[in-house]
Amino acid sequence: MTDLTTTVPPALQRALELLADPPSQPDVSKGYLDLVGADAAGAGVPKNTGPLQAMFTTRIGSMVYDYNQAALRRLFAAWLNPTESLTIPAGGTALDVGCGPGTVTAALGRAVSPDGLALGIDISESMLARAVRAHSGPQVGFLRADAQQLPLRGATVDAVVCIAVLQLVPDPSAAIAEMARVLRPGGRVAVMVPTAGFAARVWQLLPNRWARVFGEDELGDILEQHGFVSVRTRSFGTFQSVRAKRG
Ligand SMILES: C[S@@+](CC[C@H](N)C(=O)[O-])C[C@H]1O[C@@H](n2cnc3c(N)ncnc32)[C@H](O)[C@@H]1O
């Protein structure tokens, strides 16, 4: 049997305790807990095979994204890093869905310190490699899994963040359902997506393999369908940020 205390970093040991179906031999060889394995196609959920997500799975694409997001976050700190609006309890658990290079996961880690846990989940190995190198630590760990099938047990986290991800997810409603499932009642979610307002209906009729855009009320409606309350929407140019509370 694997000696988890010597082979699995502390944050991932705590993550294993939250899993619905913990692996008997956890693969943490790359610094994150890989729950997908080499054959990402085997995860049993629809896959995004478009060019934008393909770019995020390459080392160069991840690096270019990482430098750009760092520059943008310096300009729009509050908009792109909604940690404060989540009112995470001290020692709580926070989840960053589609964490990319882990900048927001790290901010969540600072918010839950010293006893809490921040977990970042992403499907891209190269994004996770960057996240692990820059941000993993006692309070911060990363998992490879799909947003449409989160590996955590129900009602295990206090807050969920999902920034600029759902446009790449084939079934955004399934991902929101998963966020609702893993959140404790009263837990908060902050989501940001690209929007085209009312023009989104036309956009959605066009053949598009890059990324989805959301209609003005679309994301708020999906959150309400999955039991979220106090849904608050703010638009800023072609982006929309939505905050809500698990009812
Ligand atoms: C534009 S980046 C945003 C990264 C990060 N949230 C941020 O704010 O910097 C989108 C991320 O979503 C991830 N992603 C796309 N589809 C996913 C899925 N089905 N499950 C988990 N992550 C996914 C991509 O790999 C990529 O890292």
Automatic annotation (TrEMBL):
Start and end residues of each Methyltransferase type domain: 95-190
InterPro entries linked: Methyltransf_11, SAM-dependent_MTases_sf
Keywords: Methyltransferase, Transferase
Keyword Methyltransferase attributed: yes
Domain of life (superkingdom): Bacteria
GO biological process: methylation
Molecular function as annotated in GO: S-adenosylmethionine-dependent methyltransferase activity
Name the record gives this protein: Methyltransferase
